[in-house]
Amino acid sequence: MAREAALKEAVEKTFLTVLKETFGENLISVMIYGSYVSIDFVPGVSDINILVLLEKSDSSQIRALGQKAHRMMRKYRITPLILTRAEFRNSSDVFPMEYMDIADKNWVLFGDDETRSLSLKKRNLRHQLEERLRGSVASLRQIFMASRGNKRLLRHNMKILYGPLKAICKGLLRLQGAKEIPTEGQKIIDMVARSYKVDCEPLQHLRRLRGGEKRDAFQLSGDVLLTLQKLISVVDQMKVRN
To answer: Residue 1: pLDDT band by 50, 70, 90 thresholds?
Structure first.
């Protein structure tokens, strides 16, 4: 409990104070999103994603943030996404998956929920999902090589892969028109399996591996690869209008 309280204090108060002091009136909005605002958050493993919106880009202020908060960001795995408000609004066609995820569930620490001003299209989402799925296949193959036959190293890298794949799964559900996206990874993966008629059990095994359950990393990595390839095949053939 003490560790969780320290994490909460660091992220929601101390880091926010540093942002305010660093950017001053240039700071528009600060929003936490991702696993930190879901039940799948694992301290020390999960990244803490924070959207920082500015009125204008100021490289000196951004450098100052790195100088003041680099130790805190490394210790707590804080990953700030720094954009101007104009950049955020004008890139919704490029990053619909991430922006839909932020819009669906976030905590506003400062300012307003700027996701309300976004225009998000399913056709853009389909293209991005295919790109991310294919990118995940390429990343998984890189993980195979980087592990050098070491099961422990492969297991570690597979755990890291779960977060991006969970985000992709949520995007897949939105592409199918799901009105409500669960926060639990197990339910998200189950819904993807039903919606796309693809065996996603390897993704459930990956989720359990990340939670501490022992798995054969070599077998699991191959199974996850096959699941991703099947999902790519389905998404590639989908027709989306809007």
So the answer is: low
Kindly report the average pLDDT of the chain as a whole number: 93
Cα gap 180→18, rounded to integer Å: 35
Q: Is the pLDDT of residue 181 over 70?
A: yes
Rounded to two decimals, the pTM is: 0.77
Q: Is the per-residue pLDDT at 27 higher than 90?
A: yes
105 alpha-carbon distance from chain centroid: 12
| DSSP conformation letters of the chain | -HHHHHHHHIIIIIHHHHHHHHHGGGEEEEEEEGGGGSTT--TTTS-EEEEEEESS--HHHHHHHHHHHHHHHHHHTEEEEEEEHHHHHHTTTT-HHHHHHHHHS-EEEES--GGGG----HHHHHHHHHHHHHHHHHHHHHHHHHHTT-HHHHHHHHHHHHHHHHHHHHHHHHHTT-S---SSHHHHHHHHHHHHT---HHHHHHHHHHTT----HHHHHHHHHHHHHHHHHHHHT-----
**Alpha-carbon span 109 to 20, nearest angstrom:** 11
User: How big is the chain, counted in residues?
Assistant: 242
Distance CA 81, CA 77 (A): 13
Name the residue among 8, 7, 53 with its Cα closest to residue 26: 53
Residue type, 175: L
Residue 128: pLDDT above 90? yes
